[in-house]
Amino acid sequence: MMRRALLALLLLLLLLAGLLTAWLHWPRSGPDPSDLAESSEGAVTLQWLGVSAALLRAGDSAVMIDPFFTRRPGKLGLLTNRPTAPDAERIRAWLQRLGIERLDAVAVSHAHYDHALDAGVVARLTGATLLGSEGVANIGRGAGLPEAQLRTVTDGEEITAGEFRLRFIASRHAGATGGRPRGLIEAPLEPPEPPLAYRQQHTWSILVTHPQARLLHHGSAGFTPGALADVQADAVMLGVALIDDLPRYLDEVVGATGAGRVFAVHWDDFTRPLSEPLRPLPLGVNLPTFFAGARDQLPAVDFRTLPLAEPVALAPE
User: Fold this and answer.
1) Domain of 186?
2) Domain-located, residue 18
3) pTM for the structure as a whole
4) Kindly report the CA angle at 216 between 256 and 159, in degrees rounded to 5?
5) How far is CA 243 from CA 24, 51, 237, 240, in A?
6) What whole-number distance in Å separates Cα of residue 80 and Cα of residue 98?
7) Is residue 26 part of a domain?
8) Per-residue pLDDT of the chain (317 residues; tens, 9 = 90+)
9) Which stretches within the chain are classed as H helix?
10) Domain presence at residue 23
11) How many domains does the chain have?
């Protein structure tokens, strides 16, 4: 028993050493300021909130996708799968900063920790309907949401949320691991729970449509071939972590939709709080390589990052 414990400790130390080495040698610069989208007033606005979190507003309507404000600091807790819970005080502070008292919907692209941890609490605090897989519904149940605020979605389904319509399109998770941990969250998930308890059941692209603008939220850098062939979007929020085949990825998601603007997301290190300067993930993200390849392949498309929490106009007034 002692020998196994020592071996496990040694493996953990080797993993930490490898991550530290990668961190020290990985490109450390964040997005070039010239790539930041200029914020402005608009009838339809988008605010990026780190990872793939997004807030869309139009008039009195507002929807949020993949809210993740808790962002427990430090990598050790994540590496050791230490149980954690949504930080309700931090979530309330961010909702107040954003001026949000009510949301029409909270949508979740997939049920991993960095996309779904805070979704149930955000929906409870804002009266929103929580949209996503059955696993996402169980996250909502664990957060105390009544069944009336839960809706399980299916491929191709369109749901009205205020002035917006949300269409869920089956996609795939990024990376060679296939998006592990996978599987259904089979019972209400009551925090604190370890990050690996947040298992991916489905991964969705979410098309958010308003009479004045169409945004595709594509939070994870996988794709289902041909799935977006009939989708038209003005802009795409494009996950850029763990891209396997950049040219094909761009063809299947950006080229297929005809989008003129692409906002790179899911590049930031989510083990750092939003109150600190954002940095790229130490593994799986190389922003200069992504932007160079993307702009070379699709020179007519405006590729850029987004300023944290600042409204960017998707359609002018």
Assistant:
1) 39-315
2) no
3) 0.88
4) 120
5) 21, 15, 14, 6
6) 33
7) no
8) 554 444 444 444 434 444 443 433 344 444 443 344 444 455 899 999 999 999 999 999 999 999 999 998 888 888 899 999 999 999 999 999 999 999 999 999 999 999 999 999 999 999 999 999 999 999 999 999 999 999 999 999 999 999 999 999 999 999 866 688 999 999 999 999 999 999 999 999 999 999 999 999 999 999 999 999 999 999 999 999 999 999 999 999 999 999 999 999 999 999 999 999 999 998 889 999 999 999 999 999 999 999 999 999 997 55
9) 2-25, 76-79, 88-98, 113-116, 119-126, 134-142, 246-250, 256-257, 287-297
10) no
11) 1
What burial class does residue 255 get, using C-beta atoms within 10 Å of its C-beta: 0-12 exposed, 13-18 middle, 19+ buried? Answer: middle
Whose tokens are 């950006």? That residue is: 254
Q: What is the CATH number of the domain that holds 115?
A: 3.60.15.10
What token pair was written down for 298?
């699709």
User: Within a domain: residue 153?
Assistant: yes
Upper half-sphere CA count for residue 274 (Cβ side, 13 Å) = 18
